[in-house]
Amino acid sequence: MTTIGTCTLRPARIQEAGLLARMSRDYIEQGLKWRWQPEALRKKIAEPESVVLVAELEVNGTRFVGGFGVMDFGLDKAALLLLAVHPNLRRRRIGGRMLRWLHKSARVAGCQHIELQVRADNHGARRFYRGQGYLEDALIPAYYDGREAAYQMTLRMFNG
Question: Which CATH number fits the domain 6-156, given the four candidates 3.40.630.30, 3.40.50.880, 3.90.550.10, 2.40.340.10?
């Protein structure tokens, strides 16, 4: 198992949109239409109501992006659109660190809850989100590309 030297969480840079798009395609959208292409992520990076967070890792003196997340902020709720960690780096608490950072941002933005959708057959991701306090609210048939089901999951935020 590779030893991670440091893990720094920071906002994504516009020039990283292509890398993040490929990570979305390969780690999240596999088997589906590739929706989160570079231009879509460039727009999210530039939007003031969104945050695109990256986990920049250092291993043996080399720095690279090992994970990322995308969250939109509304008046009272946030939507977690994407969260991915490189498969070789999973179960290293990187996803949890990114999620806690995004939760804090949602609290600062005054959000009362966070919503996300996850593939119904992605048992590992569903278990991860339940472990972070999310509840499965509803099963949505044919959510992805009109053929794959998703669970709507929600985290209730407690401000104050």
Answer: 3.40.630.30
